[in-house]
Give the backbone structure.
Amino acid sequence: NWGTIREWSNWRSFEDIFATAYERVTALGPQDVWIAEVASTEYGGDKAEWITAMLASTAFPKIEAVVWFNEEKETDWRMESSAEALMAFNEWFNENNHFAFD
Protein backbone atom coordinates (compact mmCIF):
# COMPACT_ATOMS: atom_id res chain seq x y z
CA ASN A 1 0.00 0.00 0.00
CA TRP A 2 1.90 3.01 -1.30
CA GLY A 3 -0.68 5.38 0.13
CA THR A 4 -0.05 8.91 -1.08
CA ILE A 5 3.76 8.87 -1.20
CA ARG A 6 3.82 8.85 -5.01
CA GLU A 7 1.79 10.98 -7.45
CA TRP A 8 0.45 7.79 -9.08
CA SER A 9 -0.61 6.12 -5.82
CA ASN A 10 -3.50 6.33 -3.41
CA TRP A 11 -4.53 4.59 -0.20
CA ARG A 12 -5.76 1.06 -0.93
CA SER A 13 -6.89 -1.74 1.34
CA PHE A 14 -5.14 -5.10 1.51
CA GLU A 15 -8.18 -6.74 -0.08
CA ASP A 16 -8.28 -4.22 -2.94
CA ILE A 17 -4.60 -4.71 -3.67
CA PHE A 18 -4.60 -8.51 -3.75
CA ALA A 19 -8.08 -9.49 -5.01
CA THR A 20 -7.26 -9.75 -8.72
CA ALA A 21 -3.92 -11.52 -8.26
CA TYR A 22 -5.47 -13.92 -5.74
CA GLU A 23 -8.23 -14.85 -8.21
CA ARG A 24 -5.69 -15.53 -10.95
CA VAL A 25 -3.38 -17.62 -8.79
CA THR A 26 -6.12 -19.69 -7.16
CA ALA A 27 -7.66 -20.41 -10.58
CA LEU A 28 -4.52 -22.42 -11.36
CA GLY A 29 -5.28 -25.13 -8.82
CA PRO A 30 -5.95 -26.06 -5.21
CA GLN A 31 -2.59 -24.95 -3.79
CA ASP A 32 -2.17 -22.69 -0.79
CA VAL A 33 -1.02 -19.13 -1.43
CA TRP A 34 1.86 -17.24 0.11
CA ILE A 35 2.16 -13.51 -0.37
CA ALA A 36 5.63 -12.01 0.04
CA GLU A 37 6.74 -8.42 0.57
CA VAL A 38 3.48 -7.05 1.92
CA ALA A 39 3.62 -3.65 3.59
CA SER A 40 1.92 -0.31 4.02
CA THR A 41 3.11 3.25 4.38
CA GLU A 42 1.86 5.59 7.09
CA TYR A 43 0.97 8.29 4.50
CA GLY A 44 -2.56 8.72 3.21
CA GLY A 45 -4.44 6.63 5.74
CA ASP A 46 -4.26 4.73 9.01
CA LYS A 47 -1.52 2.07 8.83
CA ALA A 48 -2.58 0.42 12.10
CA GLU A 49 -6.13 0.10 10.82
CA TRP A 50 -4.77 -1.28 7.50
CA ILE A 51 -2.78 -3.94 9.40
CA THR A 52 -5.76 -4.85 11.58
CA ALA A 53 -8.01 -5.22 8.51
CA MET A 54 -5.36 -7.30 6.69
CA LEU A 55 -4.98 -9.70 9.61
CA ALA A 56 -8.76 -9.98 10.08
CA SER A 57 -9.56 -10.49 6.40
CA THR A 58 -11.42 -13.64 5.42
CA ALA A 59 -11.54 -12.74 1.73
CA PHE A 60 -8.67 -15.05 0.78
CA PRO A 61 -9.17 -18.48 2.39
CA LYS A 62 -6.24 -20.10 0.57
CA ILE A 63 -3.65 -17.71 1.97
CA GLU A 64 -1.36 -19.71 4.19
CA ALA A 65 1.37 -17.13 4.78
CA VAL A 66 1.98 -13.41 4.46
CA VAL A 67 5.55 -12.12 4.61
CA TRP A 68 5.88 -8.52 5.78
CA PHE A 69 8.42 -6.30 4.00
CA ASN A 70 10.06 -4.82 7.08
CA GLU A 71 12.38 -2.22 5.54
CA GLU A 72 12.74 1.55 5.59
CA LYS A 73 13.35 2.50 1.95
CA GLU A 74 11.06 4.70 -0.15
CA THR A 75 8.97 5.06 2.99
CA ASP A 76 8.97 3.39 6.38
CA TRP A 77 7.42 0.02 5.60
CA ARG A 78 8.50 -1.50 8.93
CA MET A 79 6.12 -3.05 11.47
CA GLU A 80 7.48 -0.60 14.01
CA SER A 81 7.10 2.54 11.88
CA SER A 82 4.78 3.80 14.61
CA ALA A 83 3.69 2.61 18.03
CA GLU A 84 0.16 2.17 16.65
CA ALA A 85 1.31 -0.04 13.75
CA LEU A 86 3.35 -2.26 16.05
CA MET A 87 0.45 -2.46 18.50
CA ALA A 88 -1.86 -3.64 15.69
CA PHE A 89 0.47 -6.58 15.00
CA ASN A 90 0.99 -7.36 18.68
CA GLU A 91 -2.73 -7.32 19.44
CA TRP A 92 -3.46 -9.83 16.67
CA PHE A 93 -0.57 -12.13 17.58
CA ASN A 94 -1.47 -12.01 21.28
CA GLU A 95 -5.14 -12.74 20.56
CA ASN A 96 -4.22 -15.66 18.31
CA ASN A 97 -1.70 -17.23 20.71
CA HIS A 98 1.37 -16.36 18.70
CA PHE A 99 4.46 -14.48 19.80
CA ALA A 100 4.56 -10.68 19.87
CA PHE A 101 7.13 -8.23 18.54
CA ASP A 102 9.28 -5.85 20.58
Summary: Strands lie at 33-38, 63-68. The chain has a mean pLDDT of 93. Residues 14-26 form the longest helix (13 residues). The chain is about 35% helix and 10% strand.
